[in-house]
Amino acid sequence: MRWEEKDLLRAAEKLGHEAELIQVTKKPLWINDLKEFKDLDFAFQRCVSFYRAVASTIIFEEAGIPVVNSSRIIMGSEDKLYTTAKLAAAGLPVPETAVAFSREASIQAAEKLGYPVVVKPIYGSWGRMIARALDRESLEEIIEFRENMQSPHFKIHYLQEYVEKPGRDIRAYYIWGEMPAAIYRVSERWKTNTALGGSAVAADLSESQIELILKAGEVMGGGVLGVDLVERGEESLVLEVNGIPQYKNVVRVTRRDLSSIIVEKTVEQFKK
């Protein structure tokens, strides 16, 4: 278990709830007979693997056990293309983004966006496999590399304008309609993910930024989410939404007991 799972267990017990740990890799989950877990009121999904998370969530949901977050939210937030399209359709500010299915179309998109451009996999986290093309030559090399990768989703080229950040971006936490904590992820590198060496610093957000975070959470279906923003001057843009967020560093620098807030607000939600 990671720190988050251990702390959720601590918070549940502190608040007087009985919690059961389910390690999905230890034994099979029977689709037509999940009686072993029939007494659960709900479950938190904390699998690191996206595919294990979705599969196990679907099994529990179809057995009548609510899961936070739902399979729909997990699938939607994992897919950067879906997330960006959904946020943009709702009128939320996102970086200018194009999706291309060939090298030629990728070059057309990049020339309109203007170099540098950011090329992202539609699935993935922790800043992995994200590349910055500084010019046409480097973009062609990135696309060639992606076109020869085995996974077919790498042949969907998600290209985004490069936003010149002020040495940081924002990771905020949406919990059932509230925003209890946020951090700046600070780095001299263009990728500010803490998994890649970025430093976590408590954030002091404006009312407009908080409103944007809450709107993004609602658009993606609510629940417990991580919302990433990037600042461009006075404007903030939504970059991504995370359906199974980690928050160890957030608790460390903000001193907010996010696990207790997550448990308490989720129990309140299901009591309605």
Task: Describe the protein in words.
By secondary structure, this protein is an alpha+beta fold. It has 3 domains: 3-76, Rossmann fold; 97-161, Dna Ligase, domain 1, CATH 3.30.1490; 164-257 and 267-271, ATP-grasp fold, B domain (D-amino Acid Aminotransferase, Chain A, domain 1, 2-Layer Sandwich). It contains 9 helices and 11 strands. The protein has helices at residues 3-14, 50-62, 71-78, 80-89, 103-113, 136-147, 207-219, 248-254, 258-271; strands at residues 43-44, 67-68, 97-100, 117-120, 131-133, 157-161, 168-175, 178-186, 199-202, 224-232, 235-242. It has a 5-stranded antiparallel β-sheet with strand order 9-8-7-10-11, with helices on both faces. Strand 10 (224-232) and strand 11 form a beta hairpin. The longest helix has 14 residues, at 258-271.
Present the secondary structure layout.
Blueprint: H1 3-14, E1 43-44, H2 50-62, E2 67-68, H3 71-78, H4 80-89, E3 97-100, H5 103-113, E4 117-120, E5 131-133, H6 136-147, E6 157-161, E7 168-175, E8 178-186, E9 199-202, H7 207-219, E10 224-232, E11 235-242, H8 248-254, H9 258-271
Parallel strand pairs: 1-2
Antiparallel strand pairs: 3-6, 4-5, 4-6, 7-8, 7-10, 8-9, 10-11
Helix pairs in contact: 1-9, 2-3, 5-6
Key traits:
about 270 residues; alpha+beta; Rossmann fold; D-amino Acid Aminotransferase, Chain A, domain 1; 3 domains; five-stranded antiparallel beta sheet; four-stranded antiparallel beta sheet; 9 helices; about 35% helix; about 20% strand; globular
